[in-house]
## 1
Amino acid sequence: MPSHTALPVDSTAPAAQPGGWWAVCLCAGWCGTCRDYRALFDALAQAHPEVRFEWVDIEDESELAGDLDVETFPTLLIADGRKAHFLGPLLPQAAVLERLLTTLRSGAPSGAATDPMAQEVFDRVRADRTVAGT
């Protein structure tokens, strides 16, 4: 898998508002599960243009992950554009991510504690992707 490859412009965020929701997948190129999950993640981006989907290879873009130790792939970071609400591994199934996004976007508690480092990672990803223009 190439290092970070931005999703095609029409599948990411022109429809997403600058402060809108983000779904960031933290994966690694050597991970077979991540490679398989990529197609589902891209399909969800197409189905949910109001959410900005970003793919981060934590080895090729280690500066974005910082000190975060990702042990299980895929690991997802979900944020509302300002605040991280979830950081953790998910089953690599589209329905699992859709359900989590629906729950978080509705304002209902997700039942998952947010890692304090999640905000730092989100801030770096958001700044990088904003500067990169993707």
## 2
Amino acid sequence: MASLWLAKLKLPVLLMVIQITFFALFGLFVDYDSEARPRQYGLSESNNNSAVFQDVHVMIFVGFGFLMMFLRRYGFSSMGLNLLLAAITIQWSTLVGGFLHHGGDKFTVSIVSMVTSDFAAATVLISFGALLGKTSPLQLLVMALIEVIVYAVNEYIGIVLLQVSDIGGSMFIHAFGAYFGLSVARVLYSPEVEKSTKEESVYHSDMFALVGTIFLWMFWPSFNSALAMEDAQHRAVLNTYFALVACCVVTFATSSLVNKNGKFDMVHIQNATLAGGVAIGTSADMIIMPYGALIIGSVAGFLSVIGYKYVTVSLAIYQ
């Protein structure tokens, strides 16, 4: 009885310890940036990044949250753990990024740093998608704390040292999060998972997941353009916009094509329609022209459906 009681205390105690640690570290090292400091008569310069940040924030907590609800027996846990992991990751990423870029000195937070913290949360949530129903909250928490550090170092090497262009995070967010999640899934692999009958969707869970897809689909141009500047930001919005619409059309067409009855597969619609936004991310701010964005989105949608139809079965990820 005592051992069971102690086991129940592990997660809440760890969460409280982590949050208290965040209190201390934020108090010692984190401050407002110049735009958040009080000005004469309370006036401050306007910041156009606020609207973009809100779009990205909705994607993290609403888009990803609903998208994870496709499993019939894991809806509440998916949405709840999505909220918990994102909240922990945002704080931890703020600290890790600040220490990495400023050493042990005090650093400031701004709208831009909030966006980058949301990006780190997106990375963790992408990894979470490969582990739905396979891990405990405690395991997910440990994974998030480790992944944020690896993600920050990987991004620092790629973006700062190697000067890699990845404005929308196709490599450092989406690909990294996917491979990290698959790696954790392999480490935690259990033969019992393959025999599980719970890893399937039902009508209402698919509807909730589709709501998440639509939120992500609508706000993806903001995600890809959030860190771009001036004309590059404008191009990122345009390119992502056209890549997404082309991807959507091709996804529906390909889904019907690979189905023996010519019907649409909800799994394809929920996920492959977003592939255009991911694919265009690396080059979203570049001059690839609208027709180039349409081509990239179309190819991404086609390959994503083919991957879900044939490759996923071979990997036996959701069997």
